[in-house]
Amino acid sequence: PLGDEVLASYGILGDKKTAVIEMAEASGLTLVPENKRNPLITTTYGTGQLIKAALDQGCRKMIIGIGGSATNDGGAGMVQALGVKLLGREGKEIGFGGGELKKVFRIDTKYLDNRLSETKVLIASDVSNPLCGPKGAARIYGPQKGATPEVIKELDESLAYFAEIIKRDLNKDIKDIPGAGAAGGLGASLMAFLDAELRPGIEIMIEIVKLEQAIKDADLVITGEGKIDSQTIYGKAPMTFSSKIFPPVALTKH
């Protein structure tokens, strides 16, 4: 997330065409020491590199898990890695990180990896936050990424600005779409640039492993969650179980 090389992995399912990518492998909060966390400079560029690597392996369907990010760049770094040019007023490409978004004057998608046009992208997310505003990426998740109140305000304004540029240049209005604010706004760019479909990650998992069938005779399901707090209501696993399968009972440390 800070531009240093990290070892990241992704999976390929048995069909040899479906990649499972976890953005936190390349752009995760745990990759950044606490004293270096700064969403003004962290980037999702590495996530874009993982997507490109999967394309190189012949994958034309991708399930991308977005969560646990160290970033708040609206997915700008990801699309930069995939060939999109985010240009400033002088025609030069902007740098990396959420602090650069307000410098974007024009978006050039001419060099976006053309293999993406034949690739189906499914976003697995456990939150439904919009891109910006009171419940947006910066205000809800910025503090845990090292953002001060002043930085949160700057990032929120920058994401709103980036959304307007996307709307103007790509004719896609993603600012208020539920989930656009996931992973520091990565959800927004996946939808805007890669035509990705966003679904709750827990629902995708339930389908893949046929969980409802497996637990149809169970009296209790135990699911792990770091803590139960104000973020939990935005589509995380415990809420999915409580709303769709069992009455809500939670055991948690926090």
Break the fold down into its secondary structure elements and pairings.
Elements: E1 11-12, E2 18-22, H1 24-27, H2 45-56, E3 61-66, H3 76-81, E4 85-87, E5 106-108, E6 120-125, H4 137-141, H5 149-170, H6 182-194, E7 197-200, H7 201-208, H8 211-214, H9 237-244
Helix pairs in contact: 5-6
Give the distance, in angstroms, between the N- and C-terminal Cα atoms: 28 Å
How many separate domains? Answer: 2
Number of strands: 7
Q: Structural class, from helix and strand content?
A: alpha/beta
What is the residue-mean pLDDT, rounded to a whole number?
92
Beta strand %:
5-15%
The CATH homologous superfamily of the largest domain is termed Glycerate kinase, domain 2
GO biological process, one term: organic acid phosphorylation
GO molecular function: glycerate kinase activity
Protein name: Glycerate kinase
InterPro entries: Glyc_kinase_flavodox-like_fold (IPR018193), Glycerate_kinase (IPR004381), Glycerate_kinase_sf (IPR036129)
